[in-house]
Amino acid sequence: MTATTQIPATPSALRVHQFAGLAPGPKLIVLGAVHGNEVCGTRAIERVLAELDAGTLAITRGQVTFVPVTNPLAYQKGQRQGDRNLNRNLGPTPEPKDFEDRIANALCPLLAAHDVLLDLHSFHTPGQPFVMLGPPDNNGALEPFTHAREEARLAAHLGPRRIVEGWMDAYASGVARRRADAQKPGGHAYAPALLDARYGVGTSEYMRAHGGYGVTLECGQHADPQAPEVAYRAIRQILALLELAPITLEPAGTTFETLRLSQVIDRESPDDLFARPWASFDPVKQGERIGTRRDGTPITAPADGHIVFPNPNALPGAEWFYFAQKSARQPG
Question: pLDDT below 50 — which residues of the chain?
Answer without folding.
Answer: none
